[in-house]
Amino acid sequence: MSEQTHGSFSHETGTLESWRNRRLRVLGVVVALCFATLPISAFLQQSPPAILRSASEPFIDETTLPNIAWTCPMHPEVHELHDDTSCPICNMRLVETRRVAAWTCPVHSVIFERGEGVCPIDGERLVRMNLSLAWTCPEHPEIDTLNPGLCPIDRVTRLVQRLSPLPHEDHTPKHGGIFFMAPDNWHHIEGVYPGAGRIAVYVYDNYSQPISAEAVHGRIVLEEQYDVEANEVREVVAYPLAASSDETYLEAQIGNQELPLEVVAKVRFDGDATEDRFDFVFTSHGQENASPSGSELDLAGPLQPTSDSSAALSPSSIDALLAVAIPGDPKTIVREIVDRNSDIRKLLEAGMFTEIYIPALQAKELALGLGSHMVNLASDRQVVVTLAVKSLVRSAWLLDWYGDLGNRPLIQEAYSIFETAVNHLRAAYEIQ
């Protein structure tokens, strides 16, 4: 009896071990596939070095520190003012961070200044970017803390400020074009239409540093048609993209075209199996050696599309656009969300995809402000508002992300979810 029991137990253990081994093998394959989706260059790339500022020459005044915010360990482009949310991309728990604004040269990113000005190397206007701020020991770089003080190892040496560049913080066009991020979250491209029947496409890494276009392939599509029988979109007019002689950019000869010009760039990076789609809407001829203009985006008036208005905004204008005061009345909050929804629709229709994040993230903050007012609603409406807020917050982040990708179909899909959530809020609060 005992032998049979022991034999049965051994058999079950073997089955369990076999199941575990299969599960581990499957997990290993999944992990391998996840890494396989990254471009090879991502493994070879090193992030720009951090900048250390001594206690005697700090970059910021340590008596007035930036507020604590929250970010995702895997997606540092996520920046939240609340600690009660998770990463909208991977659902990981957010961690504390401090960020500080700095100004750098559009091309020479080794320059960091405390305020606006011109690049001392090429005279171009400085652009704003955010840096991660922490403190470390001069002789023990493994120490990382969010507050100044003394080194915890010797308790004598003052900590120094460590400013680290963050990925995806500089989406400023370098050649006066339109700047998008690729879905792999690493590559970036800039499309420029200088006229004379020519389109140029520049390629960058996730720190907006230029990379070779040698391993990048694609084409410019001028016309597409939907085939009802095949249930797919077919290209009618397309031109190949070829690397320039010095491999610094791709170009396509498309013949003289009138403005505004809508084109689709379909690009494959580093031998990827799938193509990425980028929808460009050019309203003027770009100048490849030009810096962004100083014009500002006005959402209150009629929208006049520019090549990339958000990149041209001054830092104070960006802060003002993203800042939103939460009204004390929930119906007023919903009305302001409806206004942002209208702004998003205008931007989408105008092809100004990189500006969509402004009203989308404003609406997100407004929607989160409804939380303290839901106790005054009937229970059934509380459920509607809770679900609508969750849907709006996630779709706002998707609009921000897809706007950076420049993929019109994905933006339209996210906007459909966003607009549905807005309509549910309108119904719950009886807003016409």
UniProtKB/TrEMBL annotation:
Keywords: Membrane, Transmembrane, Transmembrane helix. Residues 70-96 form the Heavy metal binding domain. The chain crosses the membrane at residues 26-44. One of its GO terms (molecular function) is metal ion binding. Residues 285-312 are annotated as: Disordered. The keyword ATP-binding does not apply. Residues 285-294 have a biased composition (Polar residues). This is Heavy metal binding domain-containing protein.
